[in-house]
From TrEMBL:
Membrane-spanning segments: 21-43, 63-83, 90-109
Topology with respect to the bilayer: Multi-pass membrane protein
PANTHER family (alphabetical): MEMBRANE PROTEIN, MEMBRANE PROTEIN-RELATED
Protein's name in the database: DUF3817 domain-containing protein
Main subcellular location: membrane
Any GO CC annotation of this UniProt entry: plasma membrane
NCBIfam families listed in its UniProt record: integ_memb_HG (TIGR03954)
Lineage top rank: taxon: Bacteria
Amino acid sequence: MPAPRPLDDVACRTSFARFRVASIVEGIALLVLVGIMTMRYLVFGGDAWFTSTSHFWEQVSSVWSPIHGLIYMVYVVLGFDLWMKMRWGLPRMLLLMFFGVVPVLSFFGERWTHQKVESDLALRPTLEDEARGA
C-alpha cells in the first residue's frame, strides 16, 4: 500500500488562519442575529403599544439576515478549503458546517479544530518533513 501523500504544512496553517477568523466573525454575527430576532419576536413582537419599535426591529432583521447569510457562506467556503487541504473525511466537514449554525458553538469549534489541525500536522507526513528528509 503506498504511503499517503504528504500535507502542505504552510497551506494547511494558512487555510486554518482564514477559517479561524471566519469562525470568530460567524460566531459574533450569529449572536447579533439571535439578539435581533429576540428583540423582534419576543420583546417587541406581540404588543401593539410598541408597533413603531417592532417595525424598527423588522427593518434591522431584514438588513442583518442577508448579511449574516453571506458571512455564513464565506465561513462554509473557508471550512471547505481547510477540509480539502487537511484531507479529512466527510463527517468532519459536516461538523465544521454545524459549528456555524448553533450560537456560541463556532467559538468552541474553532478551538477544537485548531487542536485537530495541530495534531494531524504532527502525526501525518508533511512536505516540510519530506524536505528535511525525515
